[in-house]
Amino acid sequence: MVFTGRFDHLIDDKGRLAIPSSLRNQMDPDLGTGFYLVQENRYLQLVPEKAFETLSSNSRVGLLPRAQVAKARRFLFSMTFKLEPDKQGRVMIPDGFMKDSKNPDPLAQTTLNREVTLVGNGDRIEIWNRDEYLAHMREAKADLPSFMDALYGMFSEPPQTSAFTPFTPPGSGGTNPEGRGEAAGHGHNH
Questions:
Q1: φ and ψ of 95, to 5 deg
Q2: d(CA 59, CA 22)
Q3: Count of alpha carbons within 13 Å of 46, Cβ hemisphere only?
Q4: Which residue ranges of the chain lie beneath pLDDT 50?
Q5: Which helix (H) or strand (E) covers residue 149, if one does?
Q6: Range 6-144: architecture per CATH
Q7: pLDDT tens for residues 117-148?
Q8: Is 135 helix (H, G, I), strand (E, B) or coil?
Q9: Can you give the pTM of this predicted structure?
């Protein structure tokens, strides 16, 4: 399952956000139908329920976790909410995460306007305030050269080593008939 694309949507007055059918259709049914709403610094994330539960269970803490681990887990799990889509594919954003809330969550890192952009980001969906997403993407576009290597690394195959033979000095009995360090057909332009 890979979530892709971006979609401008409105959160209605009741706090419902429609998940576009094209995103819902990208979901793996084995990962469940619901999401966990997880905070990030500038946006909220919708992580498919089984993916979140798997990631959470991979974190072993033991009976007495270190203080910093306990604090981090408390912060994460107390600020994470399970959301189940209704029959129309809408999820209910908790009121405390809305900027116009009468009861804002004092611990919320991110609060949403009514105009949002949903962004497919691999194994999760991000929910951004539309204006903040556009500003972020303009910054990213201007900074593209600085992270192009990371992009190429995400989608390129490891180098093939079998096409080349190790360097064999001429006359040493190696199998390279041209006596160069490259396999025949690969190498220097003369």
A1: -55, -35
A2: 32
A3: 29
A4: 161-170, 172, 174-190
A5: helix 144-155
A6: 3-Layer(aba) Sandwich (3.40)
A7: 999 999 999 999 999 999 999 999 998 888 88
A8: helix
A9: 0.76
Q: Give the Cα separation of 48 and 2 in Å (integer).
A: 11
Taking the C-alpha atoms of residue 101 and residue 103, their distance in angstroms, rounded to an integer, is 5
Tens-place pLDDT, residues 35-58? 999 999 899 999 999 999 988 887
Do residues 3 and 121 lie in contact, with contact meaning Cβ atoms separated by under 8 Å? yes
Alpha carbons 85 and 90: distance in angstroms, whole number: 5
Residue 163 CA from chain centroid, whole number:
34
- DSSP 8-class letter at 187: S
Alpha carbons 57 and 72: distance in angstroms, whole number: 15
Q: Which is nearest to 81 in space by CA: 108, 121, 62, 112?
A: 108
pLDDT, position 169:
44
Q: How many residues does the chain have?
A: 190
Question: Does residue 184 contact residue 178 with C-beta atoms inside 8 Å?
Answer: yes
pLDDT value of residue 160: 53
Please report, for the chain, the start and end positions of each structural domain, with discontinuous segments joined by +: 6-144
CA-CA distances (angstroms) from residue 101 to 9, 14, 76, 94?
19, 11, 22, 10
